Amino acid sequence: MARITGRTILVVGASSGIGAEVTRLLAAKEVRAAGSACLDIPGDALDPRSAADVATAAVDTYGSIDVALLNAGQGPDMSMDEVSVAEISQIMALNYGVVVNYLVPLVQQLGSQPGGGLIAHTNSPAGLIGVPRQGPYGAAKAAARTLLDAARVELAPRGIRFTSLHPGFVATDRVSTDGLPKPFQISQERAARYAVRALEKEPAQAYFPWTTAALVRALRVLPTPVSSLILRRPASR
Ligand SMILES: NC(=O)c1ccc[n+]([C@@H]2O[C@H](COP(=O)([O-])OP(=O)(O)OC[C@H]3O[C@@H](n4cnc5c(N)ncnc54)[C@H](OP(=O)(O)O)[C@@H]3O)[C@@H](O)[C@H]2O)c1
User: Fold this and answer.
1) Options 2.60.40.420, 3.90.1150.10, 3.40.50.720, 2.40.400.10; CATH of 9-235
2) Which of 122, 178, 211 best tests ligand 1's pocket when mutated (most atoms within 8 Å of CB)?
3) Is 53 in contact with 39 (CB distance < 8 Å)?
């Protein structure tokens, strides 16, 4: 298992929710180990220039980036009969574009470091199955997963590793009022513990909690008419 202490970790989207909790947990581990340093860099992940500047600022301050967690994203309730083209494009930018904006400069940076590094992304089960009212969000997450899957194989010789996190429903402030059903929801503290463990173990894909992982696995192997029936019931308003 890789040690998560004594390394430079960039968390993109650390101001609230899962990212904030992961950052708190990582800082606590650092304090116990050797004392920690933390740089808070404001930036718009939708802007490629801003993303590159954030990566540069981290390297200028700490000399390298050992782990990057690309966590910025959002999955609002979106019904396909109400959503506009512009709204779908916006969700694509927020959940796929932000990954691209960071991925390109990070690959350059990590590829130039002797030990390479880890790029992790907070994906979602919605990227694996067609969840009603989450279609545009799920499509963006699926695109991000495919991009990272390809990059993992391509960039392994340069020491760059990739981990996609797939948390189930997490009780963050943002989702507390969205009205979507949330089976097997876990606290953001528990989600952060799973996430940090994944940053340490570096699996290609991390699914948590196991209950959601089992449900998603079942939905993926069931015949489509059966899985559609299961998904349709909680999605109906
Ligand atoms: N909550 C869940 O049930 C759940 C389940 C599976 C996956 N996820 C994924 O987990 C990640 C975090 O979700 P969360 O529930 O913790 O949401 P959250 O509390 O809304 O956190 C999202 C983070 O992303 C940042 N962010 C959003 N747009 C940004 C932008 N343009 N530039 C820079 N930062 C930006 C936010 O910062 P600002 O507010 O400062 O912009 C915030 O720090 C997302 O990728 C989400 O898709 C969530």
Assistant:
1) 3.40.50.720
2) 122
3) no
Averaged pLDDT, 10-19:
96
- Which of 6-20, 63-77, 172-186 bottoms out in mean pLDDT, i.e. has the lowest? 172-186
Residue type, 48: P
Q: Which sequence spans correspond to the domains of the chain? A: 9-235
**In angstroms, what is the span from residue 156 Cα to ligand 1's centroid?**
28
For 25-48, the three-class secondary structure string (H helix, E strand, C coil) is: HHHHHHHHHCCCCCCCCCCCCCCH
> What are 201-236's pLDDT values in tens digits?
999 999 999 999 999 999 999 999 999 999 987 666
What is the tens place of the pLDDT at every residue in 59-83? 999 999 999 999 999 999 999 999 9
